[in-house]
Amino acid sequence: MNKLFWRFFLVFWATLLMAVVLVRLTFTWDDAPPWLPPDKLPVGAGFFSQPSIPAYSVNAAGTADFSAAVAPTHPVPPFWRRPMLHLAVLLAASILFSWVLARHIVAPVRQLKQALAGLATDNWRTQLGSKLTSRQDEFGSLSRNFNQMAGQAAEAIASQRRLLHDVSHELRSPLARMQILTGLAAQSPSYAGLAMEKIEQEASKLDALVTEILTFSRLESGAVSAEHIDINLAELVASVCDDARLEADSSNKSLWLHLENVPLIKGDPSLLYSAIENVIRNAVKYTPPYSEVSVCLRQHQQRLSLQVRDQGPGVAPQHLSKLFTPFFRAQSSHNGIGLGLSIAKRATEACNGSIYVANIMTNNEISGFSVEICLPVNSSSVQAE
Domain range for residue 18? Predict the structure, then answer.
């Protein structure tokens, strides 16, 4: 049972118990102990006693003289046992308890109201204080959830703004270069052939950028329905590496590939190709010249493990948990808008797989970066030839 409920419950029963005790004291105000039942009270004690003075007297003639009768009287209770005093005490206690409960409830509600008003004015960095979040009742839990929600909303809005900035920059740069090349080609016909070649390269970059954004948008919205067909993952990885090797060779980098004889798996070829391509191309991009990127595919029991390792600068430990956040870039000096690993994660999960990232440590120093994609092996799969 929640703590707030028990607080109301206990306060209610404490007030009721006080009322019962006060009523009991009101009707047992004599010198006898208040816990004695009425039939045990001494004669003349309280409202439950019989009158000790007769209602009539006998005169000399032997007849009853009612004129001399004395009306029965009750002893006057002490001040501290008078009903009006008990009623006043009960009323004051009820008011005090009600005020404490109202303050207990209204104070956090008022803070939540102010925080929500801050969100309504686009102040998404609004956070509730530790005095409220440290509470161990429902208000504390609600406050912590509010802070988490506001933080995620602020991060999403910041990501959206970064997206607008990065996408506009990434789109504007190729377009500007294409305009320059077009002008040069118009001024110098001899330069037209080279200009057209460079314009084609810039157009390819624009197409890749737009494709990346659309792919992430479809994966994020759930518009992609993943297929689950038999896939030879070794062939798929080899195909990606063939394309990545051309990019690596052009920048004096090498790509080492090790493929074991692994079973077929169930998955979506296009999604897995996109995930593997993003991971391998990232490794080629960040590894320095005259270094190596290693790609290894092997089987561990009922899972296939694809590990991609580079010799780049790695990622700061505080940024590792943010690498799969859309539009996050650990190194802003490189091109890209920070969607590669986000696409890889969502594509891998759509095929019932998982992805992990870690720095490669040598003598307590970062000597590279590792990405591992794990995919389940179908129990009915056959060994790939």
Answer: 3-124
The whole-number pLDDT of residue 48 equals 40
124, 149, 170 — which closes off a domain?
A: 124
- 283 shares its domain with 161: no
Tell me the CB-side half-sphere exposure of residue 42, using CA atoms within 13 A: 6
pLDDT in tens, 181-239: 888 888 888 888 888 888 888 888 888 788 878 887 778 776 667 778 889 999 999 99
pLDDT of residue 384 exceeding 60, the answer is no
- Give dist(CA 32, CA 24) in Å, integer: 13
Strands 292-300 and 303-310: antiparallel
48 near 58, Cβ under 8 Å? no
What's the Cα-to-Cα distance from 267 to each of 114, 320, 352, rounded to whole Å? 49, 27, 8
pLDDT tens track for 297-349: 999 888 999 999 999 998 888 888 888 877 777 765 556 667 788 889 988 99
Q: Inter-axis angle of helices 138-187 and 3-26, to 10 degrees?
A: 160
Number of compact structural domains in the chain = 3
Q: Does 384 fall in a domain?
A: no
